[in-house]
What does this fold into?
Amino acid sequence: MLAVASLIGVAGCRRGDRASSMRPLRRLAPRRLGAVVASVAGALFLADRPHAGAASGDPTPAELAIWNDPEFRAQFARSYAAETDIEPKVTADELKQMQRVLEHLGANDLDKAAEHLRRRRNNASSAVYDFTLGNIHFQRDELAEAASEYEAAVRKFPRFRRAWRNLGLVRAKQEDLPAAMTALGRVVELGGGDATTYGLLGYASSSVGDELAAETAYRMAILLDPHTLDWKMGLARSLFRQRRFADASALVELLMAQNPDRGELWLLQANAFLGLNQPMRAAENYELVDSLGQSTMESLAMLGDIYVNEEIFELAVDRYLRAMAMQPPMPLERAMRAAKAITARGAVEQTERLLDAIESAHGSALGQEDRKDLLRLRARLALARDAASEEARLLEEVVALDPLDGEALILLGRHHAEKGDLERGIFFFERAAMIERFEAEAKLRHAQALVKASRFDEAIPLLRRSLELAPRENVQRYLEQVQRQGRSGSR
It folds into this structure.
């Protein structure tokens, strides 16, 4: 029986290349394979010697003596055994059949190659058959079938490293990352850790939240392949997720020096600056990415958030509007959150711009809760403009949409009480107090309206009930003050 470590290449190799690489093997008798391997190994060993032989290139007797050294011969034998240990055996007949399969593959006839394998495959046949079928399916992007064949191959021969590697590639492509980690981990256990294997292990580990394993895998990938940017960016993201923001920023700084036009690098560093509580440095990065024409919805929305926190509202709304125009657009929930934040800071004009854009973009698609939120925000803007009648109209629209909206009922009660219609205000306070979640607030606002009307005795029980529901020191002090006013007024 023979070990055929290079019989079939990994998935993705061109069939023509595989066929041509097999031609020298086809011409070799099985008994000569070991001799050829030994000759090649010896030539490589001698080529590395610092003192070459005579001008003719013949090795010196001292150099040839290495082949008689017992330790060297033992090490060489072990290294050859290690290779055969990770490859399934094939019989002479199976080797002959595989040569026919390669002829079909060389002719680009995948169907005939697969059929030839299926007719001869059984539980006792070599795992090379299953592996080659898996490669055919992989090449056709038939991932489920490819995975099934690779799994069959490793069941037959559990140390089949190439089958484990291709299974890991398939599972990664299927986004079955735990399964990909298992398969690629077996490749490493079997001594086959290359840059791609480690890089995919890093990606899979990070995706399932194991950032320490991801960092280790990415560092190994970089060690083996220092020129691939993806591994370095993966390491930077892993450092960021570990909240090692200074390390992430320093690494990205080096990468940006080599790739100044890669917007994703500037975005990564911006995220690190945010983690370091340096929002305006992050904003500089986001703006630079924008100047490169590589802004994303997320980067524009994040830039808007930074400007809101810095109270640069005009720039904030400009960025939010652009984020809403992106594909995919900024989610409605995030746009509403931004509008509430700007409203809370009293930026009336900019809030109106954003609310107009939200209504224009989403229109009839707005749900009842979103519509209520919009009406509430517009009511607050009306209050800020001292447009009391507009505020009341908007709040009544909210109550018409949802009669149990306690916040709107309380605001309506306050509006009417402040306009001098205390009884109508009390009507809305009492409606709000019937809603359990708003009872404490409604009774407090009701009591405050009564205190303004010097109706202290009526206000005191309401304040006590509000305190029972939601104890607060400021309300306790307010109750005590009202009680003193009530006693002094009764004298």
Remarks:
- The chain is about 75% helix and 0% strand.
- The longest strand covers residues 2-3.
